[in-house]
Fold this protein.
Amino acid sequence: MSALGGRDSELRNEQFCGMTWGWTGVRGTWATPAAVDSLGRLGDLNVNWVGISFGALQATAHSTDIRFGAEPTVTDDEVRWAIREAKRLGHKVCLKPVVNVADGTWRAFIGFFDEEVPGEPSWAQWFASYGRFILHYAAIAQEEGVEMLCVGCEMVQTDKRETQWRALVSDVRLAYDGLVTYNCDKYQEDRVTWWDAVDIISSSGYYPLGDWDNQLDRIQSVVEREGKPFFFMESGCPSREGSPARPNDWMLQGEPSEDAQAEWYRDAFETCARRDWVQGFMLWDWPAELYAVEDAAANDDYCVYGKSAADVVRDHYAERLAGRTG
């Protein structure tokens, strides 16, 4: 059962002026003075939502044991601290636990045989472990009054396992009564077949400069068919030459460029603002320990702290929040 109920109209008026905070969630880096400073600076960008995100590891893409209680994953106390600190600062929270692969394989490639084979790792085994992982943090989200829980991120090979995902979301709703979303990968919005199981459709909006209208046309058909709210659970662009054409490629080689990043953000914001069904962004990303502001020009990662794109984000979020209350 959906958590929306009578909150449906309220949610459809929500503006997600958000930032993803804390990635990758390394134990010992949260609940520190640097983390306090990092979270505190989000208010300068007119942020109203914080996506608290951290990773747990499985050994390979074909492993079935997710070691969320072990290092390097942040402790439960650190997760609770981040939630409480974000709320103290006046932000709404989306808790986003994510599985990574220890050998460096991207989580989108986690996968097993379509049909179970005796003696081989299976989808059933993996979903049992993944369910324990998600339900652990669903309980924390419930206890801490978290507004939204993201039950998965960019797990492309798992998306086709509709029956298991529906069962997992059903189990989550027994433990957690807030809003539930799933963050599909870029270009996958029209491939997920179980959007009706969650409250909000969300995806990773890493689309090339100049291509946003094409992609929004495609996504709009999904949003209209499903009748669900939508926002980009991730979206961003590194501050380096060439990244606006390939914003999802964090390994792309190029010289640092604040202008390239700012141009991409202007294009993304201006294009999405013309679609009233796009309810905002949880931008990628804002680390628990920020680099020194004097080093911003030399930093070529996604974070906009101290860069030209920060002004673009700040102004856009101010406009969106003013429009909501105006």
About this structure: Residues 5-325 form a domain with the TIM Barrel fold (CATH 3.20.20.80). The chain has one domain: 5-325.
